[in-house]
């Protein structure tokens, strides 16, 4: 992480798929591995591995990470979650998070989509095509009619894009619907601010520095939230295979992108945090802007180093450490894509 005097300091004031638990040890003689990746779907990026050629061993939540605990319950018209875990300085931390049921219902209404929603957009498109065609042809002939149809198509695509964005999704190549991780993280900073405040109060009371605070957020995601993959559909609701961060906190579980959303939204409550999502085929993690220390795994984005953070768990992995499968994905032919959160 570098000497304390050289570390970037943050203002600690809130403002406003499949990971594994394994770790790896790179070959003893390897000092620096550079991998340039060229692929149509994934950005070509530089992957830099630890200068000393080794990664620290991971510790599971049942071992070095300490026994994590959670209590999820509903009481007094609200949902509650209480968590206990150990940060990377071996400090035991407890934190609670609650949301009124009415607020939670409104919150969840903003995520996911149903086929009926898409049918409504399609019906708008067809009815307006007929209406605008008739008007334009009557006024200026077939040429004007074609222009009118192009205008309707443009507005339909805009409406569809805005709809998906409002529900936590983005449209990729060939109209593939994907979870909008940067959008989800940004939208959930206010929702998870009470949790950030609770962690800040603990940090102030116990004299935690920035590393211990960041480590507390990461340990919470890795060990206190159970690892479980959300279904792509919940009844007739398309979820994108992700739980919104507040739901994850009040349910007690999530997968790699869900937990990354939780960690990103909490960390985003402090000014000065610069975070990016890191997407590889089948997996998602994140990175934080800071000077990498010896042994840290990091990526470069716009000329700056970002130290990797793997929230998925259940491995207890400090910032700068990733699992064996993640390491293989980062250096694979497909490469990885960086998505700035803030």
The portion of residues forming beta strands comes to 15-25%
By helix and strand content, what is the structural category? Answer: alpha+beta
Overall mean confidence score, pLDDT: 83
| pLDDT < 50 stretches | 1-63
- What distance lies between the first and last C-alpha atoms, to the nearest angstrom? 22 Å
Summed up, the helix count is: 9
Portion in helices: 25-40%
Q: Could you give the order of strands across the largest sheet?
A: 2-3-17-18-16-15-20
Largest sheet: 7 strands, antiparallel
Number of DSSP E strands:
20
What do you see in this structure?
The chain folds into two domains: 4-101 and 175-340, no CATH class; 115-166. The chain has helices at residues 101-108, 115-140, 142-166, 181-188, 193-206, 210-224, 245-251, 256-267, 324-330, and strands at residues 11-14, 34-36, 46-48, 59-60, 69-75, 78-86, 92-100, 169-171, 177-179, 226-227, 233-234, 237-238, 253-254, 270-271, 275-280, 283-289, 298-301, 304-309, 315-316, 337-340. With 342 residues, the chain is α+β, with helices and mostly antiparallel strands. The protein has nine helices and 20 strands. Mean pLDDT is 83; it is low at 1-63.
Topology:
Elements: E1 11-14, E2 34-36, E3 46-48, E4 59-60, E5 69-75, E6 78-86, E7 92-100, H1 101-108, H2 115-140, H3 142-166, E8 169-171, E9 177-179, H4 181-188, H5 193-206, H6 210-224, E10 226-227, E11 233-234, E12 237-238, H7 245-251, E13 253-254, H8 256-267, E14 270-271, E15 275-280, E16 283-289, E17 298-301, E18 304-309, E19 315-316, H9 324-330, E20 337-340
Parallel strand pairs: 10-13
Antiparallel strand pairs: 1-14, 2-3, 3-17, 4-19, 5-6, 6-7, 8-9, 11-12, 15-16, 15-20, 16-18, 17-18
């Amino acid at each position: 992480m570098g000497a304390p005097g050289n570390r970037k300091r943050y203002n600690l004031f809130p403002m406003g798929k499949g990971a594994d638990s394994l770790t790896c040890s790179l070959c003893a003689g390897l000092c620096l591995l550079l991998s340039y990746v060229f692929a149509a779907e994934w950005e070509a990026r530089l992957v830099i591995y630890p200068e000393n050629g080794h990664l620290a061993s991971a510790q599971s939540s049942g071992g070095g990470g300490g026994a994590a605990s959670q209590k999820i319950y509903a009481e007094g018209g609200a949902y509650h979650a209480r968590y206990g875990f150990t940060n990377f300085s071996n400090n035991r931390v407890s934190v609670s998070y609650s949301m009124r049921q009415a607020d939670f219902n409104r919150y969840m209404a903003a995520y996911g989509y149903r086929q009926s929603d898409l049918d409504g957009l399609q019906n708008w498109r067809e009815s307006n095509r007929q209406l605008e065609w008739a008007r334009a042809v009557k006024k200026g002939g077939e040429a004007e009619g074609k222009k009118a149809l192009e205008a309707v198509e443009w507005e339909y695509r805009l409406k569809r894009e805005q709809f998906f964005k409002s529900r936590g999704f983005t449209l990729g190549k060939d109209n593939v619907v994907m979870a909008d991780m940067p959008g989800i993280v940004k939208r959930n900073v206010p929702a998870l601010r009470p949790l950030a405040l609770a962690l800040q109060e603990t940090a102030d009371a116990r004299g935690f520095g920035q590393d211990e605070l960041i480590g507390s957020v990461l340990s919470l995601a890795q060990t206190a939230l159970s690892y479980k993959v959300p279904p792509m559909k919940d009844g007739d609701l398309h979820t994108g295979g992700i739980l919104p961060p507040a739901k994850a906190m009040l349910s007690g579980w999530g997968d790699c992108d869900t937990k990354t959303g939780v960690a990103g939204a909490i960390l985003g409550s402090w000014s000065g945090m610069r975070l990016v999502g890191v997407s590889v085929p089948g997996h998602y993690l994140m990175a934080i802007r800071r000077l990498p220390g010896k042994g840290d795994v990091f990526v470069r984005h716009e000329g700056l180093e970002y130290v990797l953070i793997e929230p998925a768990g259940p491995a207890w992995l400090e910032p700068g450490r990733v699992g064996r499968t993640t390491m293989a994905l980062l250096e694979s032919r497909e490469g990885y894509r960086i998505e700035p959160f803030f």
